[in-house]
């Protein structure tokens, strides 16, 4: 996948799992906890997923929600994933055997072993090899589905660009050019929700807003209640205001850093937004500073936690800085995107080319400097800024830059609405434990 395309962070499995994470130890007889369009989810699946999430949150030092709430969140994630996999099957998305084999080869290379040794270790740790390969296939399937059904359907017309340019020349130009970082807590509302359901969910959101304004930790509230991305406390990254949905900007433009908005209604549900950071707009210009950078990307998945990826990249950085290896060599062997064959080289990039959570730390690097591990929606990166240059954009490049900004501002809302629609259209039956 092209790193510059704003696809969700559903990555391939990049490293060996934590031992026994999926191991099948002696457990009580299994039973069905939910049925998604006639396909069951078992308590065993739910238990393993809950253990994995607990381990990840603990490693990230994120406060765990109550046990019942954590179980509910994990089950909802499994339901969403199962429904999306069924959607992929209906859309005719198939993952060829060669793609799974390539993913296994990438995992083996990152662990400096061959595929046979990878399989041996998987079996040694109590994981069924067919199940492991099935998980790989599911992750690739979801990635392809999201790219096709969400990113692939985002359209920015020339009229949209003309309208944006006209707005930038108007009275709201300064407000839309400023940079802000917002954290988002979403209480999702099903597409076909009844009036009573909407009222109940609005009350849930209002209660969350009251708790936030009373001083409760916003990141903890996001983890407990939000239907949107939980990573990094729901923060969406420092970006120009015009890269956020207009309703988000309108709700927060008069707020100071640290303040929380009123409820914002969107097609996805009720949002609560907290202003994390705000920067004054830069002067409009037709010249930009371009950055020539390279990176190593490790994608997160069931077998690679964020903490493990950061530790691995920290080790890479030490090895590069000690002179024992080169950035290019490690990128070719380990990076999981199209730049790997070029030693991680991303070429010359104008502002707005990359997602904000990648671009902001890249911009802080001095020429030649290597970053600490950086977390984005794609996974975890090690970034090196090579050089910079100031260049004047052609009229065509200006319009393409605006197109990229508009696509970025629309992606998150489009993905959330799409995922919610898939969930709403699924028939889900919850089952009680056997007595």
What does this protein look like?
The protein is of the alpha+beta class and 435 residues long. Among the domains are: 172-284, Roll (Chitinase A, domain 3), CATH 3.10.50.40; 287-392, Chitinase A, domain 3 (Roll). It has 14 helices and 11 strands. The chain has helices spanning 43-59, 67-90, 97-110, 115-124, 129-149, 158-168, 173-177, 195-213, 218-225, 246-252, 306-322, 327-334, 356-364, 395-425; strands at residues 32-36, 39-42, 179-188, 239-240, 264-265, 269-279, 287-298, 345-349, 374-376, 379-392, 428-430. It has a 4-stranded antiparallel β-sheet, sandwiched between helices. Strands 8-7-10-9 form a 4-stranded antiparallel β-sheet. Helix 3 crosses helix 5. The longest helix has 31 residues, at 395-425. The chain is globular and about 70 Å long. The model is unreliable at 1-27 (pLDDT under 50).
Roughly what percent helix? 40-55%
Work out the number of β strands.
11
Helix tally equals 14
Strand-pairing-aware structural class: alpha+beta
In CATH's first tier, which class of the domain at 172-284 applies? Answer: Alpha Beta
Element-by-element helix/strand order: EEHHHHHHHEHHEHEEEHHEHEEHE
Supply Rg: 22 Å
Tell me about the largest β-sheet.
Answer: 4 strands, antiparallel
Span from first to last CA? 48 Å
Shape call? globular
Q: In CATH terms, what is the architecture of the domain at 172-284?
A: Roll
